[in-house]
């Protein structure tokens, strides 16, 4: 027979919810052992911390409900509820100690970024052993103090993670700006290369045109020189038979003879 069958539905429901959280914490810490990345470990510890806070709240609610029903329960039932509550507190403290140990490991990994608090010797196992000799209030106070310490460690870890994210974002922005600048430089180099290519083609065309013009000018110059040479020869030696038949360059006497024949 289930011992909680003699208590109210509220207490049985609280016990079931607390048991579910303990199962989730056990699975969460098993998953945490397989995670190697510090950032993911920090996020996993945050999730586990939220579950521990919820579990602590439910244990307080369980204790309050048990005290309200204490007058209506038998002595055996009240003793069973007290032992159940103490067992819950011990189990929660064991998870708190385990979380503190993981948080301390993260602190050691980031020792170059911030100063982590020194861990107590044997934090997990030692706290579990001492829990059996503590009263309920001492257990609650110890659990609260340990959770406060681990919360501070998690906050420092979160700050480091956020700083890392900010540095990564700034680096990504700088790389993006440099990439855009390099892209603009490549585009400008392409434009310059295209302009140089067009200028080279234009220079070649101008060179060919100038060469053609020079050839034409040289030919015209030779023609002019030849004409001048013929004129000079005709003037110097008007009876030269080699140039007598050139139109317009015949001797004056021949031209007068032609007029006289008319």
UniProtKB/TrEMBL annotation:
One GO BP annotation here?
protein transport
Organism field: Stephania yunnanensis
Signal peptide, first to last residue: none
- InterPro entries given in the database record: NPSN/SNAP25-like_N_SNARE (IPR044766), Sec20_C (IPR056173), T_SNARE_dom (IPR000727)
UniProt record similarity statement: Belongs to the novel plant SNARE family.
Cell compartments where the protein resides:
Membrane
One term under GO cellular component: late endosome membrane
What Gene Ontology molecular-function terms does this entry list? SNAP receptor activity; SNARE binding
Lipid bilayer topology: Single-pass type IV membrane protein
Chain segments annotated as transmembrane: 216-236
Report the protein name in the record.
t-SNARE coiled-coil homology domain-containing protein
């Amino acid at each position: 027979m289930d011992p909680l069958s003699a208590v109210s539905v509220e207490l049985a429901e609280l016990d079931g919810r607390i048991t579910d959280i303990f199962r989730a914490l056990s699975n969460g810490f098993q998953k945490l052992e397989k995670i190697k990345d510090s950032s993911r470990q920090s996020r996993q510890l945050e999730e586990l911390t939220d579950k521990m806070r919820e579990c602590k709240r439910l244990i307080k609610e369980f204790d309050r409900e048990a005290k309200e029903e204490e007058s209506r329960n038998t002595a055996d039932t009240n003793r069973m509820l007290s032992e159940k509550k103490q067992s819950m507190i011990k189990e929660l403290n064991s998870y708190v100690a385990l979380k503190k140990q993981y948080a301390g490991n993260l602190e050691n990994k980031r020792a170059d970024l911030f100063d982590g608090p020194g861990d107590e010797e044997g934090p997990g196992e030692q706290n579990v052993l001492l829990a059996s000799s503590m009263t309920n209030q001492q257990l609650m106070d110890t659990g609260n103090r340990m959770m406060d310490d681990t919360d501070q460690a998690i906050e420092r870890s979160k700050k480091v993670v956020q700083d890392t994210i900010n540095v990564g974002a700034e680096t990504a922005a700088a790389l993006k700006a440099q990439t855009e600048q390099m892209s603009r430089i490549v585009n400008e180099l392409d434009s310059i290369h295209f302009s140089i290519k067009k200028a080279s083609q234009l220079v070649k065309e101008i060179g060919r045109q100038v060469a053609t013009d020079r050839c034409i000018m040289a030919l015209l110059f030779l023609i002019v020189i030849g004409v001048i040479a013929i004129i000079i020869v005709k003037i110097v030696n008007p009876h030269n038979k080699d140039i007598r038949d050139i139109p317009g360059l015949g001797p004056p006497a021949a031209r007068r003879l032609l007029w006289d024949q008319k």
